[in-house]
Input
Amino acid sequence: MYCNKCGCKFHKNGKTKNGVQKYVCSGCKSTISETTNTVIYHSKLSFEVWRNIIDNLLDGFSLRRIAEENNISLLTSFRIRHKVLFALENFINNIILSGEIQSDEKYFTINLKGTKPNNMPRYSKKRTSTSSPYRGISHHKICVVSSIDENDNLLLKITGLGRCTTQMLEDSLGYKLNNAKSINADSASAYQGFCENHNLKLQTVPSGFHSNGRINIAEINGVHSQLETWLSKFRGVSTRHLQEYLN
Ligand SMILES: [Zn+2]
Output
């Protein structure tokens, strides 16, 4: 480990009360610890407790139950969840996709759980005609674009309402590519424009299939089925918080 201020080597420098290793720079004498710049930096709770709380969050426990199980206050439980969600958001925002990418969309019904009655969105009275461009997908459905690259970098992003368009792909994936070569997708036409814009080879699998024998989207379909199983234990996820769950 080398100091990012002066480039000199770090030496071990004792441990904190919680057993976290500390280091001091042999050049500029600045100090860091194992947890510097991590989600548990400055926390008085042990790593074991953090790990348990993160498990509890993944299992969908309420803040109150997390507080009781880990012998912490409700406020601490609230703050930790916030820190974890913030760290995940940062992590997701830094993901870059490269090489061969598989991509697919998943549509979610709007869920207003936890929304106060006066904050409910109002639906427009105007109904779409039968010539609607949404063809089978209600424009009151939330479109999530999921993409995974050949190194298993995975991105799940809410892109908007209704059927996925090239613009929605641009907004969610357009700035996430680096050295991308190709996209495997189902026959959704939104990808044609997107691949042209980014000079990518588009390989399509007929809608409803995982593979046409040569090209497959099995990985991303697998992610979707795991996601479904995991989300089902929350008995309805509020649309307000959907992106946090996806992260
Ligand atoms: Zn230094």
About this structure: Helices lie at 47-58, 63-70, 74-93, 166-173, 190-197, 218-232, 242-246. The chain has three domains: 1-37, 41-94, 95-114+137-246. The radius of gyration is 23 Å.
